[in-house]
Amino acid sequence: METDVLKKVPVREQDPKVRAHNFDEVCLGYNEEEAKCEASRCLTCKNARCIQGCPVSIDIPAFVEKVKTGEFEEAIRIINKASSLPAVCGRVCPQEKQCESMCIRGIKGEAVSIGKLERFVADWARENGIKPTAPAGKKDKKVAVIGSGPAGLTCAGELAKMGYDVTIFEALHEPGGVLVYGIPEFRLPKQNVVFPEIENVKALGVKIETNVIIGKSTTIDELMETEGFDAVFIGSGAGLPKFMGIPGESANGVFSANEYLTRSNLMKAFDDSYDTPIRPGKKVAVIGAGNVAMDAARTALRLGADVTVVYRRSEKELSARQEEIHHAKEEGIKFNLLTNPTEILVDENGWVKGMKCIRMELGEPDESGRRSPIPIEGSEFETEFDTVIMALGTSPNPLISSTTKGLEVNKRKCIVAEEEFGRTSKEGVFAGGDAVTGAATVILAMGAGKAAAKGIDEYLKA
Amino acid sequence: MYKILKAKMLAENIYLMDVEARRVADSCLPGQFVIVKIDEKGERIPLTICDYNRETGTVTIVFQTVGASTKRMAMLKEGDSFRDFVGPLGQPSELCSQPVDELKKKKILFVAGGVGTAPVYPQVKWLKENGVDADVIVGSKTQSLLILEKEMEAVAGNLYVTTDDGSYKRKGMVTEVIKDLVQVQGNKYDLCIAIGPMIMMKFVCLLTKELSLPTVVSLNPIMVDGTGMCGACRVLVDGQVKFACVDGPEFDGHKVDFDLAMKRQQLYKTEEGRAYLKAQEGDTHNGGCGNCN
């Protein structure tokens, strides 16, 4: 295989015209030859900056070296030491802002495709039946983990490796959290990627009890006082949707991205053999420009809609990953930038018939560091839509914090926890991920889950 | 898996089941609901808790067949299981948080319509257990659709049954019974709790507002997760957007925007679901889906 060392080995993808009509994965990943070839671009730096860029500190040069030499089983063992969900991270981590942004190769040319290599190794391990093994030594302490998303799974996995008796409590009927209800099939296949990774965590000895809503079915205090848990980790995410508060928002055909995606992802509305109803819409507006907005837009497109992303700032401020924006555009999603909805137009039967928007211009940077959008007076216009999906971000659910004695939250209802070890204001209770930070990324949640596992271990040893 | 210990048909298309669900039975209170899912491919169906037994760890649900999943649920027999059964969801009825001495001073009127009789039952029973007798009006389309009459009789102070077609006991709508009790017989009530079809709750509230009788209703809108995540169940109460799943399901009936709530109910209705709503709402059916008149 011939290569230009300055460039990444290109990764094969489904043709945009074809994938716009199916829910199969967009990116097809490397094969063995491509992976080895890409791995050979790694300079195996002694002082590997890429590791510092990884929230869970995977020994990147070491595993890439094993890919180079074709010792894939060794490669997965190295990754597994640091990460419980490599097939997930290889797909959804923003590597361009993390490990790959630190890569020395990237100074002159393109960084090594660390994410795609991680994905290759994880997929190879799954296809070859390599599973992590449960630890031999068991500790006589019970830990409850609340939420089975990236933070919870990571924390549970780490604690199980240390020998603790870990039970995860999940509110929904399927474990996986945002990996299952939020991120679509075409970016992160459930049956072939997410569920096997969850099985791997279970293989470490972690128990998962679904359909338990902490704060309703039972409480943290009850878990500790009557069910004998010695410590608790809260990784309950940020699940509450935001709406704009504009007229017409309660009309039929206005959805939160959470609802739209949950129906399609968790409840499999795109698959006719499921009972779940969904109204895909014919002309859909998605409000927002983060990864969730791209996921909702691309889901609506695959369900047959004509989709426009409406965002109040400009191209430069789009907060979704570059790769997602690029994929969305390739598939035919339109972008209506510097535009803000001011009203949802509703027909006499209560259904969405359009949207009134106003044009925006950018002013001085606001506290987020991005230039703040200012409405241009008199620039209102109306466009027809039959569906509007609000993807404006999410905030943590107060269900747990409001039912746990002595658990401090900040004014955004995020649980207050120390970054280093995830300690909260309540003894024996730790927290991490979106429940603490507000909506962020899978890998940051995993990093927090891992840190809290260390904190819990220290606490239980003391 | 959540085992069904008892399954019985109460009336045409209305079913009762006792389901083993220890965590729910241990922690639920009247007014709360559960979400059940029959199997991997079923929908998540929210159902108000009809009864519970903390000793046996069972929860009683009553449901009406409306769409694909409830139809399949109706076929389940004793010994079968639900794949998922989660709860309790929502806030308990406000009654449960009031001091019993206060409640004893109050005269409470329950108005139950159709399958809404099921969620009214645990509240009346809870009051009875706490030494409070409440009056109950149960309305049904016709005698054959009347449910839980004997059970209700055992826990209610006075029970007034009415059927739309006069096939059993009184004839007429529940609102006529309210008028009769309050305006003709001169009964004084401090609180009304109305649970039933949206259209019934709307008209009960219009009447009780005139009568200056505070009224609580229980809403059962479309929802997915039941924990505040999807926002599908948003309702307008006193001009504010509320999520029925976490802020409710019970609200001040005089402040609920019923017209909007009824339109939102049409969102995902199947053909048979629309037909069912149309039959239930009769002449007042507003066909919010745009596909029916």
Q: What's the Cα radius of gyration of chain B? A: 18 Å
**Beta-strand percentage range of chain B:** 25-35%
Mean pLDDT of chain A: 94
Computed CA radius of gyration of chain A, to the nearest angstrom: 23 Å
Q: So what's the overall shape of chain B? A: globular
Q: Going across the major beta sheet of chain A, what is the strand order?
A: 5-4-3-6-18
SSE order of chain B, one letter for each helix or strand: EEHEEEHEEHEHEHEEHEHEEEHEHH
What is the CATH C-level name of the largest domain in chain B?
Alpha Beta
**What's the helix count of chain B?**
10
Biggest interface between protein chains, with counts per chain? A-B, 39 and 44 residues
What low-confidence regions of chain B span 5 or more consecutive residues with pLDDT below 50? 283-293
CATH-derived architecture of the largest domain in chain B: 3-Layer(aba) Sandwich
Query: In total, how many beta strands of chain B?
Result: 16
Biggest sheet overview of chain B? 7 strands, antiparallel
Helix-residue proportion of chain B = 25-40%
User: Helical proportion of chain A?
Assistant: 25-40%
Distance between the termini of chain B: 41 Å
Strand content of chain A: 15-25%
Helix count of chain A equals 18
The CATH topology of the largest domain in chain B:
Rossmann fold
- Side by side, the strands of the main sheet of chain B go 6-1-2-5-4-3-7
Description:
The complex is a heterodimer of chains A (462) and B (293). With 462 residues, chain A is an alpha/beta fold. Chain A has helices spanning 16-19, 32-39, 49-52, 60-68, 72-82, 86-92, 105-108, 114-127, 150-161, 178-181, 190-203, 220-225, 257-264, 291-302, 322-331, 398-401, 434-437, 442-461, and strands at residues 12-13, 27-29, 142-146, 165-169, 207-209, 231-234, 240-241, 254-256, 283-287, 306-310, 334-336, 339-346, 352-365, 371-375, 381-384, 387-390, 394-395, 429-431. Chain A contains 18 helices and 18 strands. A 5-stranded parallel sheet of chain A has the order 5-4-3-6-18. In chain A, strand 12 and strand 13 form a beta hairpin. Chain A is globular. Chain B is α/β, with parallel strands linked by helices. Chain B folds into 3 domains: 2-89, Elongation Factor Tu (Ef-tu), domain 3; 100-218, Rossmann fold (3-Layer(aba) Sandwich); 220-288, no CATH class. Chain B has helices at residues 22-27, 68-74, 100-105, 117-129, 149-155, 174-184, 198-210, 244-247, 258-265, 271-281; strands spanning 2-11, 14-20, 33-37, 45-53, 58-64, 81-82, 84-89, 108-113, 135-140, 159-163, 170-171, 191-195, 215-218, 234-237, 240-243, 250-252. Chain B has a 7-stranded antiparallel sheet with strand order 6-1-2-5-4-3-7. A 7-stranded mixed sheet of chain B has the order 11-10-9-8-12-13-16, sandwiched between helices. Chain B has a two-stranded antiparallel ribbon with strand order 14-15. In chain B, helix 6 (174-184) packs parallel to helix 7 (198-210) and helix 7 (198-210) runs antiparallel to helix 9. Chain B is globular and about 55 Å long. Residues 283-293 of chain B have low confidence and may be disordered.
